[in-house]
Each structure stands twice: as C-alpha cells, then as structure tokens.
Design a protein that fits this description.
The chain is mainly alpha-helical. The chain contains 4 helices and no strands. The chain is about 80% helix and about 0% strand. The longest helix has 27 residues. It is elongated and about 50 Å long. The model has no long low-confidence stretch (mean pLDDT about 90).
Length: about 130
C-alpha cells in the first residue's frame, strides 16, 4: 500500500497536469491573439506554488499544511473558474473536454485536502 506521502505527491502531479491541460483548452478555445505567454505564466505558477508547498510539507516546516491548503484552495477555485468559462464561452467537444478535465481536477483537489488532513506533520520548534 502506498504511503500518504507518495499518494500526495502523485495527486499533486496529477492536479498540475489537469490544470495545465484544462487551462490550455479553455484559453485556446475562446481567445483570439497571443495567448502563449499567458499559458506559460499560469503553468509556471501552478508548478512553482505546488512544488514550494510540497517541499515545505515534506521537509516539515512550520505552517506547511496551511500553505498547502491555501495553494490547493487557489487551484480548486481555478477549476471552478474553468468550468464557468467553458460552460459559457465554449461549444462542442472542447467544452465537454474542458469541463470533464476540470471536474476531475476538482476531485483531485478534494483528495489533496483529505491527504493533507491525514498527513502526519511533526514540527518541533522549527523556524523557517
């Protein structure tokens, strides 16, 4: 059986991939003009924030659980936003694909909340 740590890392990686792919579908489906820079920035932010939160959590830093919950909440709301935009601005197969990927992403975020709750964090007077 997998440990909570490996389940958490796997679920975070899956969430990153789902966010990047659903964001790409929504952005490419409804916008005109140059969107590559925006997609690269949003992809870099999701990777950076989740990586930072994971490193803090796995190295048992203070407030690591709270920071991971904050990052997960931000991207949970991102998935809700993707569903809203896809349902109003897109049509056809792209709309269905974006909404399904975002719903799976929402479920992955909820799994991360559950795993964080169960994650044993033994912080003993560490500062940093």
């Amino acid at each position: 059986m997998k440990t909570i740590k490996s389940k958490l890392v796997t679920t975070v990686m899956m969430t990153i991939a789902l966010f990047v792919s659903s964001n790409w579908l929504v952005t490419s489906g409804h916008s005109q003009g140059q969107t590559t820079g925006m997609l690269i920035r949003s992809s870099a932010f999701v990777i950076l924030l989740y990586a930072w939160a994971l490193v803090r959590l796995l190295s048992t830093k203070r407030f690591a659980k709270a920071f991971m919950i904050f990052v997960d909440t931000v991207y949970l709301m991102g998935f809700v936003s993707i569903i809203a935009v896809a349902s109003t601005k897109l049509t056809g197969f792209i709309q269905i694909s974006a909404i399904l990927i975002a719903i799976i992403g929402l479920l992955a975020c909820l799994i991360i909340f559950y795993l964080i709750k169960k994650y044993p964090l033994n912080v003993v007077n560490k500062v940093n």
